[in-house]
Structures are given as structure tokens and as C-alpha cells.
Amino acid sequence: MSFYFNPIDTNCKTPRGAVREGEIISFTLTATGCSAKIFLREDKTGELTIINGEKSNGKFNFTVTNLPVGLYWYVFEIDGALYGRDDFLNLILGDANWYQLLVYAKDYTVPNWFKGGVIYQIFPDRFYKKGKTPKLTDGKILRKWGEQPYFKPNADGKMLNNDFFGGNIKGIISKLSYLSKLGVSVIYLNPITEAYSNHRYDAGDFMKIDGLLGADNDFKTLCEKANEYGIKIVLDGVFNHTGDDSVYFNKYGKYNSVGAYQSENSPYYSWYTFKKYPDEYTCWWDILILPTINKNSIEFEDFIAGDNGVIEKYMRLGASGYRLDVVDELPSRFVKKIRSKIKSENPNAVLIGEVWEDATYKIAYDTRKEYFLGNELDSVMNYPLKNAIIDYVLNKNATELNKVVSEQINNYPKQALDSLMNILDTHDTARILTVLGRKIKPKTREEMSTCSLDENSRYFAKLRLKIAVLLQFTLY
User: Fold this and answer.
1) 400-to-168, 367, 392 alpha-carbon distances in Å
2) Half-sphere exposure of 245 (CA within 13 A, CB side)
3) What local confidence, expressed as pLDDT, does residue 1 receive?
């Protein structure tokens, strides 16, 4: 039997990719059989709909209307035999793999300014310093600019990350002209709120900008000045844990508050989960300095996304959106609240999620995520494409690159596809030149601190990077 169907071929399916609620979906299957059907299954309920095809000129035509918002799967039946998809979305005999169809809310849009833009990620402490650095206290260490960061654990075996180079918000402001000349349209800032560590993923006080970086007025000025260059500021929203050294947990009693660690009557007690009070508590990836937020704490959600909350404050200072750290650990209810608050403050703001897989069908903690149904995310960090590009450049693996690109075109809403955060490295991965230099992976922190590419390796890494960037900028 002869047959053909591929959903990213507009001769086979329109619209291509995910579809808007209320859109008419047309399928065209080329086959020599006598009869054909589509079996369409709703993901959440498992409800199955069977649609008969109308044959004309060797093709079967199907029309699907009025699908509610949701995730669907489908296969074809031709003359009683089931046909699913291969890795490249081509039709093959067998129903092991069903095609995906996502239907998103009709009012779902993504801000146009974000589409096709250039994002520049800044780790605030290490970007640029302007003016004098305030005096460091509490054992924090100030290093000379360009000096090697301190990476060894203390006597108790803890990584304190307490050395600082003094990069600040005024330093970023002073470099806006430079960033504009690079073509940057979005600055994504790693956390800027008060914290003990230099990376600031251990929030000490969400409502305060870290004093080493500046103050509220500095951030407001940054947003205003950046806007003059056509640059938007996106913040890192780290809402799945706090620091143990925080106004909320206050394990060391440094804050003038009654933290959850100090008393079960603390206003923050419900934010956390204690196994045996107070020293045994749920923490992020078993890192004791990062007590995890209780996923059922409505009080915490309201503190972040409610009236007079964290998001409202920084949006009103001029932020143009958030990137949500480890978004798959946040309840769907919370993500929806965050989106609602961001969009109520600025309908043209953007919400990005840290997702390492295809975000349209991801399952995390036994729950199917609903990131792109229209009331959660605008974009995600595109790790699948990153990995596929690197694999292609290093190993000539065009097969995986083809597979990833084809699936994303089919799976994502067009407005989200146009807005994916297409990366080659981040603060959570090895730097791209190191990867493309084929350097042997260092095994210890000491080796990492001295490992560098030799001149020949760096030369070829740069050549490979040009190929990678070409793909990064032109695919889709």
C-alpha cells in the first residue's frame, strides 16, 4: 500500500503546528486504501473520537472542528490497519507512536517585541562594576576584578559562594550603549534580590534588591535607560525555594524576624515542610541552605503573585517580565497566578520557563504540564535545540537535529515557536567554547579552575561556534 502524511507539510495539515481554539483543522492523507479514519484521543480524559475520511483523487480528507483547549493524540486507520508516526513525523504502519496536536486558548498571544530578539544574560556580580563597592560583612569576601573565584568548601565541607567581585546595577547601566551596539533587545538578569551568596539563588529577602548591587532607584533607572535603547529587562523568578539565611527561614537568627526555623508560630512556617522540627526539613536537591517551598502554601503564592507582592513591586519598577527558575517544580495553579499578575501589570510583558525538554507534553512529578495552553508561559529555554545543534556540530548528527526541529514545529504554538529562548549555553551548563573545543572534562573543582583550551583547540572551537550560531539564528 502507498501512503503519505506529515503534519508539518501544509499539504497534509492546516494550520501547521498547534492550533488556536475554534480553528478548523484540515487533514489530508494520501493512501491507496478504500477507507480511512482518524482516532483522536484527548490526553487528560482519554476520550476517543473517530472521524471518517472522505476520499477524493487518491486522498482522504478530514475536517476537525470545535476542539476544546487541551492536548490531543491521533493515529490513522487505513483499511483496518493502524498507522502512527516515525521520529520525523512520517506515517508508518503501527500505532506505537501517536501524532501530537495541541489546542491553545484563542486569546493566547506572545508579545511581538520578544519574537526574534537577542537575549543577553547577565550574572550581576561578574558583569561590570561602577563606583565603590559597599563594605562587605558577615564573612563575605571581596575579590579583585579578574581574580580567580573561590571555589573550595569551608572547614565544614560547605560551599559558601561568599566571594564577590562587585558587579552592580550601575555597571550594567554604563554598558547599555555597548549592549545596544551588539544588537541586544533583552537583558535577562540572574537574581538581584538580597541573598547571602554571590549567585543569589538563595533568596534572603525577595522585597529588597541586594545592597551590593544597588537599590530600587538603580533598578528603575536601569529599566528606563534600557528602554531608551529598545532593551527590555527580564528578571529571574526563583520561587521554589529560599535561603536558610533569610527573613523567612532565619536559621541563623541574623534577621529581625521570627523565621520558620525559629518558631512554629512564625508567619512563614506554612511556607516550608518540616520532617522533624526544626532541623529536618525538605530542601531543594538536598542542599540544606535551600529549604523548599511547600507546594500547597497559598500564603507564599499570594506573597509572590498577589497584591503588593514581589512581582507587582518589580514590574512597577520597570521589569518587562520574568524567567521562572525550575518551573516544573511550581504548581500549575501558581504559574497561572504569576502570569495573571505579570500581564495585569503589563499586558506586553513576557513569562519564560526553565524547561529542559519539549515543554508541550512534559510530565513532571506525575503531572502533565500545561505550559502552552494559553494561560501559563510565553516561552521556554530551548535546551533540546541547544543539545541537537551541539551534537550536529561536533558529531555531524543531522538526524537528531532534524527530529528536534520537526517536532517543535509540529508541537508548539506558532507565537511560542517564534519566541523560544534559543541558547547554546547558560549558567547551568558548560560554556559553549569549552564544549566545542572537545576538551577532556575536568573531574575536580581544582582541575576546573585551571582547565583552559590550548590555542589550537580554541581556534577550532570558534570555527564550530560560527556554525552553531548560524543554526541558532536561522532555524525555524
Assistant:
1) 41, 27, 8
2) 13
3) 73
* Residue in 163, 194, 354, 407 annotated catalytic: 354
Please state, in angstroms and rounded to a whole number, the distance separating the CA atoms of residues 340 and 325. Answer: 18
How many degrees, rounded to 5, is the angle at CA 469 between CA 463 and CA 474? Answer: 135
163, 210, 218, 325: the catalytic one is 325
Query: Are 306 and 341 in contact, with CB atoms under 8 Å apart?
Result: yes
* Residue 438 confidence (pLDDT): 79
Cell triple for residue 439?
Answer: 576538551
* DSSP structure string for 245-279: SSTTT-TTS-SSS--TTT-TTSTTGGGS-EEETTT
Average pLDDT of every residue of the chain: 96
pLDDT tens-digit series, residues 339-370: 999 999 999 999 999 999 999 999 999 999 99
> CA-to-CA distance for 402 and 398, rounded, in angstroms?
6
Q: Is 357 designated active site?
A: no
Q: For this structure, is 279 an active site residue?
A: no
Grid coordinates standing for 361? 507534553
